[in-house]
């Protein structure tokens, strides 16, 4: 039985599970710590997989369907491993008005990756962000965490090409 | 009454199983009454080949599945006073629309290519060009009366047509429902 | 910390500053940081060291100065000997590390670097009234001492030492402050309701889930002046009797989260948070909760569900959070900017606050001015200023010689306002009379190169994606409206489609469970109202649409064989 | 005879459609209306389960307010005047039904609950004779992995009755909703096939509370599946008795 009330062992010897366990301990292993715990999983592993869902469900005594229901409600939590590089394209209004829809289309077409997806060679993940709050620099793309602003069309395409070579 | 003053009545069969027309025939002896009251100017049940002008009531069975269906509907709408979506396929696209979620291409491949081991080929001559999605009649033309049911019962058809001929607006949903 | 200790810190900071000749302030908020401002600060530091000016020149990282489009911004403040003298400042724009030697040389010679200089008499600076943002871009947000030096936490001492909770609420009521998150509900009234409920446990939540695309006021406040928000929260907690607080902030704002965490720790260490705050019989703790990418969590009941670790689906109100909020306890929820207004109200009095603004909308409002406008950035203006002043004076007009078409306020819940209403004063009532809303403060300028149908479609896609899916009208209605707008955009719509669209606007607005659905039709309603021609121009006759659609979508069976 | 039972709880008197009615103060407008044989349509609501106010069909007007109120979660109040069938409400209800029908692939003619379906009968009652909105026609699966039951997502209206009965009555919480918005879906456990669920007790409560043919017993053909609900009030009263 998956929810027999006993605290489960860590899924593996991977030290990152201890970070996840620590997040749950901070919340007294109470169900209300679910989202905090998922953040810890995401931060430690880069995504939330089945093993993590199962471990969290057992540890916090939250029914499996509820754990998955919460995880899939919030777009921050990724269910698949991300690529070596992550390109975040802001689709906030200011960026949209300044032409980021074209940048999004360009990356999708040129690199054969859909929004929220990763290329088959696991090189590039594409994320469409709701608004990163840097509207003053619109349009904005974030290349591996580095915010690049005010570049449109060929300029941003060139920047992305350059960045992918690194 | 002379033929000339009788309401002109038609029925049409698009993408459906003809069950609605069968139910129409189930009106039995009332069909004789109806024949006395209207002039049947076009129907799969009669021999006329072309849809005439100035039709008062047209019953349409079936969903809209092909380019040809659209052309027919546009013409018939222009020539009909009271257009009736007759049965669930006309009203909701119903069973014919069950292919919609899969897309036309996948369905054609499944039916004509993957399921036929001997001579797999898709019929592509003479047959009308299919739409990607089957849609209800009212997506293409304005519909005046809807008769849900799969098929609507003979009793329902009789009541609705009878009311219309009597110049009254029928309360269709008191008589039938989707899937009835 | 006691009041004496507070004053001592203040004095110490002032003396330290008195030793300086120049204070070089480099913006380190998200906007400028992404244009490499930290490297600029490091280069300046290095140059100061090489010129041996450490004793008299201080280089520090500060928060947002507002004109994000021209970042990185560097402000040079000549320290005044005379207390109370007007500040003597100079602003440099688009600074790179390579500019550092010239800037530092300029300090030594007293000659500003002309090529970098930004004129401070531009209306962008002179037409603003900075109240909430007064210290943003001036203080180091990572040092509590900087905040204290500018009078920080004095409002808290005043409230705790001289005022009863009821008097605090009275003062807030007198100020006329209304919720800055979008609703515009009178803050004093809300506080009073929570204060009146008897309960052993009450919660206070600061809503920093700024989800409107095109809005970044709250991020900027949290990054630039985090203690201002914390002080406002503590005063609020004292007023309503809350003992536990949460800041619910978007995970997409890592710098804001970091600064807020740091500020909470500093406030705890100083005794502004914790048990018996400042020696009073009042205890209050604050924790941060991270949002996880769901716009609907800006809705208060969804936000509370999220803090409780559940799906962020709103629930019907009543009961309101004031009666039954977090874990069923009375809860006060206010937005970042609302809390940030509180210390000033307590310190200077509600009456003084109410002198700024219009009859029903008091004080100032911060806007994120973006889109097709020359000066994109963050601005703070008195309520009642006109849209024209904001866009043409502060914003410097429309770039590239294009024509103004509309200004969108309030994000996905707001509407598009056309040119004929540019002289409308910006306040809650006037904007809603035009079919838009104040919202949290996003203000996006649209020029004649954009199709208003596409703008409406953009927002509808947002609402569709962000709908929680609980209630039927929002879940299905936004999806249907989006599809209809796509048809208009593609020129495949019929008159029947227009009727469907208008009916849906009415249905979704009136029957949705929460604010997201109730306001989702606004961008469509307002564009239909002011730019109806654009919709009508796209309408075709059914036979045209279906003739074309049939040829485009319908495939000859033979084609299947070819592709299979 | 007053439908309000003898109780110490305060009673509120008010009007529904001009008729004087009374109800206990903890009752909802919906409960009060039904006790007085005034019909307000519902789909997500089921007496015995918590109310969520999700389907919006039970919205009513209260005189003096421009807002609409979901009757299932709005408590009765002294002196209010409730209207349940204004022209506006009738129009909205019909539109809501159209939206529900347009969302997934509802084909009554080939459905196991044809003739026993709340969605179907509610549409008929509301006079919905066609759906003006384009059908979205999503591609959804049918999961028949369970030994006794099956779930056809094409017919699910996301009312969450299954989620609530499983959580509140059976207390297994096998069901929940994943995703959000138009992409929402009811799931068992970690969205694995229902038959592989480790928490499902095979009790069938979810199947019987489901208002449509989304959850059904295997082996039932078109129009053969009628839902049995008598267990619900019984279990609710047993629970209340045990708490007392």
Would you kindly provide a written description of the structure presented here, covering whatever features stand out?
The complex is a heterotetramer of chains A (166), B (180), C (564) and D (244). With 166 residues, chain A is of the alpha+beta class. Chain A has helices spanning 16-26, 34-45, 50-60, 64-73, 93-97, 100-111, 153-165, and strands at residues 85-90, 124-129, 140-143, 146-149. In chain A, α1 runs antiparallel to α2. The N and C termini of chain A lie far apart (48 Å). Chain B has helices at residues 19-25, 30-37, 67-79, 88-92, 104-114, 154-165; strands at residues 8-13, 39-42, 55-61, 64-66, 80-86, 130-135, 145-147. Chain B has a single domain (3-97, 132-174), classed as Rossmann fold, CATH 3.40.50.700. In chain B, the strands form 2 sheets. Chain B has a 5-stranded parallel beta sheet. In chain B, strands 4-6 form a two-stranded antiparallel ribbon. Chain C is an alpha/beta fold and 564 residues long. Chain C folds into 4 domains: 18-122, Glutaredoxin, CATH 3.40.30; 151-354, 3-Layer(aba) Sandwich (Rossmann fold), CATH 3.40.50; 364-450, Roll (Ubiquitin-like (UB roll)); 458-536, de novo design (two linked rop proteins). In chain C, a hairpin with a 5-residue loop joins β10 (364-371) and β11 (377-382). Chain D is of the alpha+beta class. Chain D folds into 2 domains: 11-85, Ubiquitin-like (UB roll); 107-243, 2-Layer Sandwich (Alpha-Beta Plaits), CATH 3.30.70.20. Classes of the chains: A alpha+beta (166), B alpha/beta (180), C alpha/beta (564), D alpha+beta (244). At the C-D interface, α18, α19 and α20 of C face α2 of D.
């Amino acid at each position: 039985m998956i929810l027999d009330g006993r605290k489960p062992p860590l899924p593996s010897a991977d030290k990152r599970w201890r970070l996840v366990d620590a997040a749950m301990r901070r919340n007294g292993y109470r169900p209300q710590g679910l989202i905090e715990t998922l953040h810890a999983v995401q931060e430690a592993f880069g995504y939330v997989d089945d093993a993590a869902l199962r471990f969290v469900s057992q540890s916090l005594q939250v029914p499996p369907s509820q754990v998955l229901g919460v995880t899939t409600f919030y777009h921050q939590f990724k269910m698949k491993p991300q690529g070596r590089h992550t390109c975040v394209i802001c689709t906030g209004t200011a960026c949209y008005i300044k032409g980021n829809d074209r940048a999004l289309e360009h990356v999708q077409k040129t690199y054969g990756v859909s929004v929220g997806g990763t290329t088959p060679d696991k090189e590039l993940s594409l994320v469409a962000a709701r608004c990163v709050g840097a509207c003053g620099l619109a349009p904005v793309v974030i290349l591996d965490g580095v915010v690049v602003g005010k570049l449109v069309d060929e300029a941003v395409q060139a920047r992305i090409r350059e960045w992918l070579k690194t | 009454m002379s033929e000339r003053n009788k309401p002109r009545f038609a029925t049409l069969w698009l993408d459906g199983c003809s069950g609605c027309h069968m139910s129409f025939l189930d009106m039995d002896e009332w069909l004789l009454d109806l024949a006395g009251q209207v002039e049947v100017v076009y129907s799969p049940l009669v021999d006329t080949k072309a849809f005439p002008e100035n039709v008062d009531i047209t019953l349409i069975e079936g969903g809209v599945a092909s380019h040809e269906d659209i052309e027919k509907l546009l013409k018939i709408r222009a020539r009909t006073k009271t257009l009736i979506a007759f049965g669930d396929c006309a009203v909701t696209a119903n069973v014919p629309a069950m292919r919609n979620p899969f897309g036309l291409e996948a369905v054609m491949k499944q039916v004509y290519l993957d399921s036929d081991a001997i001579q797999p080929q898709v019929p592509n001559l003479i047959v009308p060009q299919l739409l990607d999605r089957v849609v209800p009649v009212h997506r293409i033309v304005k519909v005046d009366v809807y008769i849900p049911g799969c098929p609507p019962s003979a009793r329902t058809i009789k009541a609705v047509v009878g009311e219309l001929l009597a110049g009254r607006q029928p309360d269709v949903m008191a008589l039938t429902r989707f899937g009835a | 910390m006691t009041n004496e200790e507070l004053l001592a810190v203040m004095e110490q900071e002032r003396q330290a500053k008195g030793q300086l000749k120049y204070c070089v302030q480099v913006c380190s908020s998200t906007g400028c940081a992404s244009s490499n401002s930290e490297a600029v600060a490091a280069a300046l530091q290095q140059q100061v060291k090489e010129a041996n000016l450490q004793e008299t020149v201080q280089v520090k990282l500060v928060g947002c100065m507002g004109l994000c489009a021209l970042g990185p911004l560097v402000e040079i403040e000549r320290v005044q000997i005379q207390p109370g003298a007007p500040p003597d400042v100079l602003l440099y724009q688009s600074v790179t590390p390579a500019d550092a030697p010239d800037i530092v040389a300029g300090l030594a010679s007293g000659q500003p670097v002309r090529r970098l200089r930004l004129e401070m008499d531009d209306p962008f600076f002179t037409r603003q009234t900075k109240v909430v943002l007064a210290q943003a871009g001036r203080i180091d947000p990572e040092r509590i001492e900087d905040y204290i030096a500018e009078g920080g936490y004095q409002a808290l001492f005043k409230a705790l030492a001289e005022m009863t909770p009821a008097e605090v609420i009275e003062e807030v009521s007198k100020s006329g402050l209304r919720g800055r998150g979008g609703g515009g509900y009178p803050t004093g009234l809300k506080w009073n309701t929570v204060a009146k409920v008897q309960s052993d446990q009450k919660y206070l939540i600061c809503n920093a889930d700024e989800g409107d695309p095109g809005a970044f006021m709250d991020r900027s406040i949290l990054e630039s002046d985090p203690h201002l928000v914390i002080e406002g929260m503590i005063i609020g907690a004292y007023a309503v009797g809350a003992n536990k607080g949460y800041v619910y902030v978007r995970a997409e704002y890592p710098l804001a989260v970091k600064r807020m965490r740091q500020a909470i720790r500093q406030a705890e260490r100083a005794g502004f948070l914790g048990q018996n705050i400042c020696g009073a019989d009042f205890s209050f703790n604050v924790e941060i909760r991270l949002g996880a990418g769901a716009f609907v969590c800006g809705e208060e009941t969804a936000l509370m569900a999220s803090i409780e670790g559940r799906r962020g689906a709103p629930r019907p109100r009543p009961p309101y959070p004031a009666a039954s909020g977090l874990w069923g306890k009375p809860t006060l929820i206010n937005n970042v900017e609302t809390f940030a207004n509180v210390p000033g109200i307590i310190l200077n009095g509600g009456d003084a606050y109410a002198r700024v603004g219009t009859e029903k909308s008091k004080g100032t409002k911060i806007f994120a001015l973006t889109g097709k406008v020359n000066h994109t950035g963050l601005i703070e203006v008195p309520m009642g200023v006109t849209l024209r002043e904001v866009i043409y004076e502060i914003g410097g007009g429309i770039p590239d010689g294009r024509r103004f078409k509309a200004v969108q306020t309030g994000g996905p819940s707001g509407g598009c306002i056309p040119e004929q209403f540019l002289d409308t004063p910006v306040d809650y009532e006037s904007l809603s009379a035009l079919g838009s809303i104040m919202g949290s403060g996003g203000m996006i300028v649209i020029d004649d190169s954009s199709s208003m149908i596409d703008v409406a479609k953009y927002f509808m896609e947002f609402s569709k994606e962000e709908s929680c899916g609980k209630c039927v009208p929002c879940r299905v209605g936004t999806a249907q409206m989006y599809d209809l707008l796509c048809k208009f955009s593609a020129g495949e719509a019929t008159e029947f489609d227009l009727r469907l669209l208008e009916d849906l606007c009415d249905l979704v607005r009136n029957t949705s469970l929460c604010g997201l659905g109730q306001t989702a039709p606004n961008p469509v309603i307002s564009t239909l109202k002011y730019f109806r021609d654009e919709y009508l121009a796209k309408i075709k006759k059914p036979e045209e649409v279906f003739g074309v659609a049939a040829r485009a979508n319908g495939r000859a069976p033979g084609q299947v064989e070819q592709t299979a | 005879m007053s439908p309000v039972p003898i109780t110490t709880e305060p009673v509120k008197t008010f009007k529904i459609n001009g008729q004087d009615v009374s109800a206990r103060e903890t009752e909802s407008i919906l409960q009060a209306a039904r006790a007085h044989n005034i019909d307000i349509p519902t789909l997500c609501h089921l007496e015995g389960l918590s109310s969520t106010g999700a389907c919006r069909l039970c919205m009513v007007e209260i005189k003096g307010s421009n807002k609409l109120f979901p009757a299932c979660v709005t408590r009765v109040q002294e002196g209010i005047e409730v209207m349940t069938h204004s022209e506006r409400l009738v129009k909205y209800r019909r539109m809501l039904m159209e939206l529900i029908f347009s969302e997934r692939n509802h084909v009554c003619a080939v459905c196991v609950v044809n003739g026993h379906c709340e969605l179907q009968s509610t549409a008929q009652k509301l006079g919905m004779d066609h759906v003006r909105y384009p059908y979205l026609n999503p591609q959804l699966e049918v999961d028949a992995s369970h030994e006794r039951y099956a779930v056809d997502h094409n017919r699910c209206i996301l009312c969450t009755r299954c989620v609530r009965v499983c959580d509140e009555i059976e207390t297994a919480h096998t069901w929940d909703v994943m995703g959000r918005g138009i992409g929402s879906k009811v799931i068992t456990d970690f969205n694995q096939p229902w038959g592989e669920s480790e928490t499902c007790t095979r009790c069938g409560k979810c199947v019987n509370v489901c208002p449509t043919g989304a959850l059904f017993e295997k082996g039932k053909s078109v129009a053969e599946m009628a839902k049995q609900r008598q267990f619900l009030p019984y279990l609710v009263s047993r629970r209340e008795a045990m708490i007392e």
